[in-house]
Amino acid sequence: MKTMVLIPAYHEDKSIGAIVSTLRATLPYDVVVINDGSPDDTSEVARSAGAIVLDLPCNLGIGGAVQTGYLFARENGYEAVVRIDADGQHEIGDIPAMLEPIFQGRADAVIGSRFLGETEYRGTFLRRFGIRYFCILVRLFTGYRVTDPTSGYFAINRKLVDFYSQHYPSDYPEVDAYILMHHMHARAVEIPTRMHSRTEGKSSITPLGSVYYMVKVTLSFFINCIRRFG
């Protein structure tokens, strides 16, 4: 099954090289980095480490960068895509387990949860409250029982690659991805994955930003609940 690892990246030249090098050395999959208009050397570092790099002419945000990756996957015949973040928080060694349910045809989507099994992740109170809130929201309106609805560790099959390449949220897409999967009657499972502390940079979500994120994602979620997808 033709498979690629998708990494959206913005201003990640300190961490992206090691991630791409490790992926290339340990897994037999193509590594595609979407350089989201970074002003630093993210593109050059990723390319030098062996990634296929797509350079966006301006910063589209995480949703636009991920959708660009899905468009590339669709146009180049990839049957499975696993997305990881560029900051080094996702454990690369968990990728085979993420892809196994896809390869076996048991799921259309696999989400890596930092709250199942042993974890070293410790979020702020606001972040943990927000995650719990979105767990309830997702379960009520889609039926998916999830523990980590904001996880960026995500694997999907060709069915969802095709759909997400046409319909994908432009901003903070992880929670909205569930309502889109619900529209597609997609089978989704969570598995435990390890999440490490950032090795470089800092999170873009501040305490005030967490409140803004919850309000914005909630509005977007309800709009997608009533939206028709052609």
Commentary on this structure:
The protein is α/β, with parallel strands linked by helices and 230 residues long. 42% of the residues lie in helices and 15% in strands. It contains 8 helices and 7 strands. The protein has helices spanning 16-26, 42-48, 62-75, 95-103, 125-142, 158-164, 173-183, 207-226, and strands at 3-9, 30-35, 52-55, 80-83, 109-113, 154-157, 188-192. The protein has a 7-stranded mixed sheet with strand order 3-2-1-4-6-5-7, with helices on both faces. Strand 2 (30-35), helix 2 (42-48) and strand 3 (52-55) form a beta-alpha-beta unit. Helix 5 (125-142) packs parallel to helix 7 and helix 7 (173-183) packs parallel to helix 8. The radius of gyration is 16 Å and the shape is globular.
Layout of SSEs?
Layout: E1 3-9, H1 16-26, E2 30-35, H2 42-48, E3 52-55, H3 62-75, E4 80-83, H4 95-103, E5 109-113, H5 125-142, E6 154-157, H6 158-164, H7 173-183, E7 188-192, H8 207-226
Parallel strand pairs: 1-2, 1-4, 2-3, 5-7
Antiparallel strand pairs: 4-6, 5-6
Rg result: 16 Å
Low-confidence stretches: none
Judged by helices, strands and strand pairing, the structural class is alpha/beta
Helix fraction? 40-55%
Order of strands, widest sheet: 3-2-1-4-6-5-7
Question: What keywords describe this structure?
Answer:
single chain; 230 residues; alpha/beta; 7-stranded mixed sheet; 8 helices; 7 strands; 15% strand
